[in-house]
Amino acid sequence: MSGQLNPEDALYVDMFIAKNSQTMTFIRSSYSAILGLAAGILGLTNWSGFVFYFVGSAFLSTLVFLVKAKASPGTYFRSPFDVFTEGVLGGLLSYILFWTLLYGIIHVYD
Amino acid sequence: MLLDPAIRNWVLIPIMLVMVLVGIVRHYVTVLLNGTPKKADLKSARETKALQRAAILRAHGSHLPEQAFQARKSYLSEAFEKGTYLKDPIGSNKPKGNLMSDPAYVETMMDGMKKNIMNIVPQTVIMGWINFFFSGFVLIQLPFPLTIRFKSMLQRGIETQDMDVTWVSSLSWYFLNLFGLQSVFTLILGSGHAADAMRDMQAMSTMGMGAAAGPQMGPTGQPQDMHKIFLGEKENLDLAEHEWGLDDVETRLLVKYGKKPRSVLVDKRTKALAAASASAAGASSSTPPAALAATAAARSKKARRQV
Amino acid sequence: MAVQQAPSHLGRLVCLFAFLLLLHSGYSTFEHLSYLKAIDGHESGLPQDIVIELMASVAIFGLGIVMVADDFKEILMETEMAKQTIESLDARPSFYGFSHRGRAVFRNVSFKK
């Protein structure tokens, strides 16, 4: 292990940072799956599909910000913008999977 | 309206189901294969922890008074130089050539190989199964467009030239599932599951450096020379300056409660900086003035933050 | 720190309800499209009520999942330390021991004054 320790790190409880990040990932991935199902049912294609995902993600971020982080994300995350950006790209892949699945089942098959 | 629903019942859903089940089975097989976590070896653990101790001392030395810091610094420097923390003392001849004889090293190699096998074998088997049974027809339409270059990859086995890229074969459904099910596995199996791509990437970058049970291995896979590392750490330690956090705490307290103006702190900082640079210019010291200025700036920043 | 949070039953109920709503709207879409195919009609977008039901289910699921997930924990060390009592951190000074590694570490130190 190299000797790169930042004294500022002593201010934070590492375990809680990791726990919060894990909770955030859980929320995002389950919600991305549901968003994918909804997009497939609606029959969205191309750009509207991706726009739907980002709008849905933003809606989830505001919900988390208001309900879970009680409007002060700095107490729970290192950078207050983490609430809005964490796990979004990871959720995109499962969104695409479920979007394709439902789109195929409802709009392409007989 | 465009495809036979039998394809949906017999290909789409089964492929997804099989991949989910294989993922779950692979997770449990990995858990069983790994068995109970190994007991850490005392000497290896001591080696790593001694290094960390020196790093922690350098980073958080401001919490200790001067004498405690100096005592630990001199003790650790001496220990690193003499090699008291090394797993194999310098005098003994360890034949470096024949690594296979060291049982701990073999263990580390076996662990890495097991993990690789558990990832590669199911992927290859499922890909072969899909190519054998489910090739030659269009499976699904992707809702989003892709460029022409993907056509050869996604429509393997379908010999049409004009069909647009959104209609894809079963293999591309396999790839979609491979990436999309990562988060589903995290949801079902908890965060430490065996199919985690992030963990694979981390494992590849820190090969062999897991628990303190295994011997230390460098990026090339050769056991690192701990003595050289210890000497390097000793150099770093010798350069470390001590900076007591409670140095001017009275002034800081008075400033915090408004009994003294904040300018008092700033004056102290500039005076200390001037004195330090004067002494550095006068006598030749080992730390360059740039590092000194950097530490002084960090000092004032820390004081401003703590106040 | 290792105490599990009590599961939020209301949150799970809300998630289940939203998921059922989603399934229902999915099935309605499927039926609607089969109906259109049966009467040879052209596709003209989904009926309004299905779309509204879908959007409502997505929003309610968002609410539910936020309720179900564990609460966030504050990350500042200060707030965690504020909850500790002095007894748990630094107790019984009359029971200090002196047989520790300080004996080795401080052996060769000369105290500069």
TrEMBL record, chain A:
Q: Which UniProt keywords apply?
A: Endoplasmic reticulum, Membrane, Transmembrane, Transmembrane helix
Keyword Chloroplast set for record: no
Concerning InterPro entries, the annotation shows: Emc6, EMC6-like
Q: Give the record's membrane topology.
A: Multi-pass membrane protein
Query: Per the annotation, which location comes first and is thus the protein's main one?
Result: endoplasmic reticulum
Which PANTHER family does this UniProt record tie to the protein?
Answer: ER MEMBRANE PROTEIN COMPLEX SUBUNIT 6 (PTHR20994:SF0)
Q: What is this protein called?
A: ER membrane protein complex subunit 6
User: Which species does this protein come from?
Assistant: Podila minutissima
From TrEMBL, chain B:
Which biological process, per GO, is one annotated for this protein? protein folding in endoplasmic reticulum
Q: Where is this region: Disordered?
A: 277-307
Where found in the cell?
Membrane
* The protein, known as: ER membrane protein complex subunit 3
Family of the protein in this entry: Belongs to the EMC3 family.
Question: Which Pfam family is one of those matched by this entry?
Answer: EMC3_TMCO1
Topology of the protein relative to the lipid bilayer: Multi-pass membrane protein
Output the lineage of the source organism: Eukaryota, Fungi, Fungi incertae sedis, Mucoromycota, Mortierellomycotina
Composition skew (Low complexity), residue ranges:
277-298
Q: What does this protein do?
A: The EMC seems to be required for efficient folding of proteins in the endoplasmic reticulum (ER).
Cellular component per GO? EMC complex
Q: Which domain of life is it from?
A: Eukaryota
Q: Which UniProt keywords apply?
A: Membrane, Transmembrane, Transmembrane helix
Q: Which PANTHER family match?
A: ER MEMBRANE PROTEIN COMPLEX SUBUNIT 3
Q: Which InterPro entries match?
A: EMC3 (IPR008568), EMC3/TMCO1 (IPR002809)
Please give the start and end residues of each transmembrane region. Answer: 12-33, 120-144, 173-195
Automatic annotation (TrEMBL), chain C:
Q: Where is the signal peptide?
A: 1-28
Residues crossing the lipid bilayer are 52-69
UniProt key word Endoplasmic reticulum: yes
Its placement in the membrane is given as:
Multi-pass membrane protein
Nuclease recorded as keyword: no
* Keywords attached to this entry: Endoplasmic reticulum, Membrane, Signal, Transmembrane, Transmembrane helix
From what superkingdom does this record's organism come? Eukaryota
One Gene Ontology term, aspect cellular component: early endosome
* InterPro entries documented for this protein: MMgT (IPR018937)
The UniProt GO MF terms for this protein read: inorganic cation transmembrane transporter activity
Subcellular location per the Swiss-Prot or TrEMBL entry: Endoplasmic reticulum membrane
Specify where it is mainly localized: endoplasmic reticulum
Report quaternary structure and partners: Component of the ER membrane protein complex (EMC).
What family does the database annotate?
Belongs to the membrane magnesium transporter (TC 1.A.67) family.
Q: What is this protein called?
A: Membrane magnesium transporter 1
Name the source organism: Podila minutissima
